[in-house]
Each structure stands twice: as C-alpha cells, then as structure tokens.
Amino acid sequence: MFDILDKYKTQDHFFLTDTNDLHTVCNAPADQHGVYVIYALKKGRIELIYIGNSGKLGKDGTFASRMEGFTGLKDEIVNGHQFGKTPAHIAWKKQITRENIEALNIYWYVTYDASLKDCPEVLKKNMLRQHHDLFGAFPKWNKSV
Q1: What is the pLDDT averaged over residues 41-55?
Q2: CA 3, CA 22: separation in Å to the nearest integer?
Q3: In the predicted model, is pLDDT for residue 34 greater than 70?
Q4: Cα 75–77–79 angle (5° rounding)?
Q5: Residue 107 — φ and ψ, nearest 5°?
Q6: What are 14-27's pLDDT values in tens digits?
Q7: Measured at the alpha carbon of residue 137, what is the angle toward residues 117 and 16, in degrees to the nearest 5?
Q8: If you count DSSP H runs as helices and E runs as strands, how many of each does the chain have, helices first?
Q9: How many C-beta neighbours within 10 Å does residue 46 have?
C-alpha cells in the first residue's frame, strides 16, 4: 500500500502476541529514527491499524526524538504512549486481548540517518492522508494526522 517505504533499506518486522514481551521481540534499532506500521492478524484477515513514528523536526529545523528522553525507533515502539498515557508495551497487549487479535505484525523503517533525511513525522502524516484518501478514515488506532 505504501510504495514510498520500498526505498528504505534498513527495515524489518516482528510479531507481538499477548504472550510475548514487547521489549524482547522488538528488533527495531534503538539509535535510529523512522516510521512503523502495525497490522492486526485476526480471524485470517490482516488490517492496518496504526501508523507511528519516532523523530521530528523542531521549530528551529533541528531533528529530535518525538518524545523527550526517547532515543530511537525501539524506544518509541516499546514505550511510546498509546490510548492515553499508557506505554505501548502495556497498552498493546491489553488491546490484543480486548479486540481478540491473534498477533500484531509490526513493520519498521529507518527514514532518518546519516544518508537519509526523510522526517519520520512528515512521512507519517503523508501515509495517514493516503490511508484516509483510500479508505475514508484513519487506521483505527490513529486519532488523526
């Protein structure tokens, strides 16, 4: 769906179930920034449910982590706030149970490093707009652009 992500060479994915520990299964880099896309696997179907990012451009044009104290994609995926102020490693497992999801398939892409300077926050917003244009709504775990 997002052909733009094909250009990013540093990428991978991992699965999270209600019995896994997100800290353990997350293979995203701790010191690089980018976007991540979460798919829910449920009853033989796959649904894109969330688009997230680590890193943004500040008002002065410098690059910084999205959340103060976070160091990269892994920190954002594991500890980023979801459904309010709850860290993802807690919130996602509860949501897996609540929604009867078999597993989350989490893809991540490094978009900002020494050779690439694609702002993860801008890329996420573009992806959310594209999803909205195609389906008339944002992914269900995303509130808005």
Answers
A1: 95
A2: 27
A3: yes
A4: 60
A5: -100, 140
A6: 999 999 999 999 99
A7: 65
A8: 4, 8
A9: 10
Residue/partner pairs of 133-140 with CB below 8 Å, 24 or more apart = 134/1, 139/38, 139/48, 139/49, 139/50, 139/51, 140/47, 140/49, 140/50
Per-residue tokens: 120? 């993860």
Domain edges within the chain: 3-135
Which single residue is written with the structure tokens 């500890």?
Answer: 79
52 and 78 in contact (C-beta within 8 Å)? no
In this prediction, residue 38 has a pLDDT band, given cuts at 50, 70 and 90, of very high
26 close to 14: Cβ distance less than 8 angstroms? yes
